[in-house]
């Protein structure tokens, strides 16, 4: 089974607190371990998430997941895109916590993204 990244959109502090306590208890019971971690990200609202997760950036994430590149230049070449635009996309995704960068290159530590969205009307 692959690792999921759980993205929470529009949750209030009470809900965030409940999730934290639930995760703490599951970790105490051994359900969350180094071998079985959970990955979570939160965005204040859907507009903030949508500004980060554009179609081009999703394409970039999929490519990195399948074939982790050693550099942004290699990624830009593989995608057939301008280096500066790919660099800006990488920076935005790294800053949002959706992409990891280290001395070995770029990678994603998850296989799927699960969205939990609440939109106030």
What does this structure look like?
There is one protein chain. The protein is an alpha/beta fold and 121 residues long. It has one domain (4-117): Orthogonal Bundle (Arc Repressor Mutant, subunit A). It is 47% helix and 19% strand. It has five helices and five strands. It has helices at 13-28, 46-52, 55-66, 72-79, 83-96; strands at 4-9, 39-43, 100-102, 105-107, 112-117. Strands 2-1-5 form a three-stranded parallel beta sheet. Strands 3-4 form a two-stranded antiparallel ribbon. Strand 1 (4-9), helix 1 and strand 2 form a beta-alpha-beta unit. Helix 4 crosses helix 5 (83-96). The protein is flat and about 45 Å long. The mean pLDDT is 88.
CATH topology: Arc Repressor Mutant, subunit A
**CATH superfamily membership:** Winged helix-like DNA-binding domain superfamily/Winged helix DNA-binding domain
Number of domains: 1
Mass-distribution shape: flat
Count of β-strands: 5
Instruction: Please give the share of residues in helix.
Output: 40-55%
Helix tally equals 5
Sketch the major β-sheet: 3 strands, parallel
Judged by helices, strands and strand pairing, the structural class is alpha/beta
Uncertain spans: none
Please state roughly what percent of the residues sit in beta strands, choosing from under 5%, 5-15%, 15-25%, 25-35%, 35-45% or over 45%. 15-25%
Encode the helix/strand succession as letters. Answer: EHEHHHHEEE
Distance between the termini: 36 Å
């Amino acid at each position: 089974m692959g690792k999921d990244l759980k993205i929470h959109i529009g949750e209030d502090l009470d809900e965030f607190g409940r999730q934290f306590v639930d995760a703490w208890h599951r970790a105490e019971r051994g359900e969350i371990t180094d071998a079985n971690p959970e990955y979570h990200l939160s965005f204040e609202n859907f507009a903030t998430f949508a500004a980060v997760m554009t179609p081009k950036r999703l394409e970039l994430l999929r490519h990195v997941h399948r074939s982790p590149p050693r550099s942004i230049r290699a990624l830009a070449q593989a995608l057939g895109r301008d280096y500066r635009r790919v660099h800006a996309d990488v920076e935005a995704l790294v800053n949002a916590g959706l992409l990891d960068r280290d001395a070995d290159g770029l990678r994603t530590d998850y296989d799927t993204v699960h969205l939990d969205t609440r939109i106030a009307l």
